[in-house]
Amino acid sequence: MGQPTPARKDKDWWRSAVIYQVYVRSFADGDGDGTGDLAGVRARLPYLAELGVGALWFNPWYLSPMKDGGYDVADYRAVDPAFGTLAEAEKLIAEARELGLRTIVDIVPNHVSDQHPWFQAALAAAPGSQERELFHFRRGRGAGGELPPNDWPSQFVGSTEPVWTRLPDGDWYLHLFTPEQPDLNWAHPAVRQEHEDILRFWFERGVAGVRIDSAALLAKDPALPDFVEGRDPSPFVDRDELHDIYRSWRAVADDYDGVFVGEVWLPDAERFARYLRPDELHTAFNFSFLSCPWDAARLRSSIDTTIAEHAPVGAPATWVLCNHDVTRTVTRYGRTDTGFDFSAKAFGTPTDLALGTRRARAAALLSLALPGAVYVYQGEELGLPEADVPVDRIQDPMYFRSGGTDPGRDGCRVPLPWAAEAPHAGFGSREEPWLPQPADWATYAADLQDRDPGSMLALYREAIRLRPAFGDGPLTWLPAPEGVLAFTRADGVSCVVNLAGTPADLPPHSRLLLASDPLDDRGRLPQDTAAWLHV
């Protein structure tokens, strides 16, 4: 395969980028009030540049009552005061670009906050009004309309609470998530026009891309029929109307050379690939790999399936081990069940952190050697485990809507440790941060790891630096013993990961480029270790 020209390569940066996910609320606190903010991010931009990533994906920083971590947006064109100002966001985008870091913002199109002006106007208007047509308002069932309009399930796994809330005037409104997040009616042209205008607003401010939250949920069957498991098409997931929406979005993005990454949870590979056709989304998150157990056969199958489902539409795969919704990699890989399933989350699940850390180091090299883009969630480069947040400090609505059985997602959102000797591990807060840090959090501090060549931070930095050695060619599997994954992507460079129960001999090579842990005294690759080789 010929190398792309520099201009083409720059335009196609998203096809092979390492993208760092910033959960602003927990990244760094610049004003000391206990909440991470844009000032904190701006101060840490040199750290991110040194890490070597090419872009930053920011979770929502918009004006929000924070009923669901900022995914309840009251104004898409304003920055929440807890994080800073619009002017500061513009400075952040510009300063990041000067350091070679592109910016990806998060758009939440399925729903808005109940404090959004549109919904406030709908509440003030009468049933059947134009204001209510922007949402899904319906009369209830039953003799007096006392029953919800249908029986759709909540998108919070484990929640048994209804997705409809009744108003005093008798109307019910739909919310697939919390009652504070009313779903928009995407059949209404004003909804479509508003979101296209929002995209232009942020592209005009220099963002390079947009991550689309819950991208497969926007369109609803206008009849709002009851939910039947397995019915095709679903009344609210992956409906054909979505593709016309994203074609119009793509036209907007193309005006700015902007890119999209969609949050698309679908089990059907063919239907998943439809979102990645050349006139729709550029990329979509690969949740198969994220949720896959630490098992050689399962991982190989996930990798093969992912590459195969992207091939027909020419889209690059994305690889991610963890995000702001998912149990941290170190903790998950240290458990008996190393996969991830929202429905299986529970309090008190035992974890071997030493084992999990070893596997997480190997998984980092595996993911960074694969073809496509890689997303790294903040703190993964520090090897942070999932934190046990005291029950009385949990804020995630997933916990409350499960009746307290689901621990929620706060454990992966605990503020980062920057300096071991500073209060609150250098997060920057004068008082207790918005989520409490575990007692040993300072031992993971970035300043300690910066001085340790064997640290997780050092491993990530070196792996990202060496990653271009794999080139942009396809993945080719190499012969390997059972339990060992071995592949190449460029002449002379290969990746080997040992998930077997015994040390594995390395294939012939001229040089060891990088290993997640030291080889044994016979030069073999120990269990749960990965290596990059120059053949």
UniProtKB/TrEMBL annotation:
Keyword entries, A-Z: Hydrolase
InterPro entries listed in its UniProt record: GH (IPR017853), GH13_cat_dom (IPR006047), O16G_dom_2 (IPR045857)
Taxonomy, superkingdom: Bacteria
Single GO MF descriptor: hydrolase activity
Similarity field: Belongs to the glycosyl hydrolase 13 family.
The species this protein was found in: Streptomyces chiangmaiensis
Keyword Hydrolase: yes
SMART domains reported for this sequence: Aamy (SM00642)
A Pfam family matched in the record: Alpha-amylase
Residue ranges of domain Glycosyl hydrolase family 13 catalytic in the record: 21-413
Listed name of the protein: Glycoside hydrolase family 13 protein
